[in-house]
Amino acid sequence: MPYKYVRIAGNRRQVGVALGKLARPLMAAYLEQNGTWEALRPWRGHSYLDQLGQFARDALPAIWEELEGLAEGLRMPLADVLLWNCRGDLLHSSTGDGCTSVALKAADGTRWIGHNEDGDPYLYGRCHLVDVALEDAPGYLSFYYPGSLPGHTFAANRAGLVQTINNLRTRQRHPGVPRMLLARAVLDCTTLDEAIALLRDAPRSGGFHHTLGSAADPRIFSAEVAPGGASFLEIGTRYGHANHMIHQETRGQAQIITDSSRTRQNRIEGIVDGWSPATGGAELLAALHDASGDLPILRTAKDDPDDENTLATAIFEIRDDEVTLRVYDRKTRADIALDVMTDPDDEKKPDPA
């Protein structure tokens, strides 16, 4: 498998340190080849970055403690780690985070959420699935980019809350809580309503699309959350979303819509419109691995116009009191299956199916 499963446990700072140590061997080479890091250099020492840090400390002190631990584990200055975790709040067009998400309510009551994690092609085979146990929160399972707090990719926590994230290239820049820290904070929530309230009420400095589901709630939500406003749409039966705002309440906000995002949005809408109540995980996977057209949903091209490739595909099967996550490799379709709500101490380490 192109990603390794790693368990981490402890308090907030200890977890942050462990995440930093996990990424440390790769971090310097990763940033050196990454154009986003170069584009961020002018923001070093900027008062606006200090403002974002202050908003994070005030609104999310526990998450800030994780960020401090992350910096310690990476052996990087905290200001640089904050800068890296604010990349989408500061840069609107040069962040290599794409993604496509789908959702479905099946006839038998099962809720399905699927997601392509698209990012820097350099990271293919260099990311992890981290299973994090916290002393004061439910704990979570998340795809982990080196040096970034988990939560802004695809994840679920042990309260049964599921979240997938799509990048939004909003043109607005407001002082507020950095979007990646806010996405991480969602994984500490225990209900959909709590997660929605957090995203709605927090001051926001960047934009993300969140697909939210729960083992304790029959609803699924599509949330477009940006500095200029937020929209929460309860999904009826089926849904697809790429990397720009499409809700009635938010699509008028200033944003960058790339050719890839526009094409993938049109394609995924066409696919999900053909789904029936009997549709299940196999159809979600087929949609996310669709390679038709010049700018396909499954992104593997070396000359991708957004400099992104699909790093992994996640399929969440959500039933009452049960969440199963299957993570697929884009090349072989080999997968790893995890029961999110089962304490890993009570089961064997997951093996590829």
From TrEMBL:
Name its species.
Achromobacter deleyi
> What positions does the domain Peptidase C45 hydrolase occupy?
108-329
Query: Which InterPro entries does UniProt cross-reference here?
Result: C45_proenzyme-like (IPR047794), Peptidase_C45 (IPR047801), Peptidase_C45_hydrolase (IPR005079)
Pfam hit, one: AAT
Q: Out of the domains of life, which is the source?
A: Bacteria
Q: What is this protein called?
A: Peptidase C45 hydrolase domain-containing protein
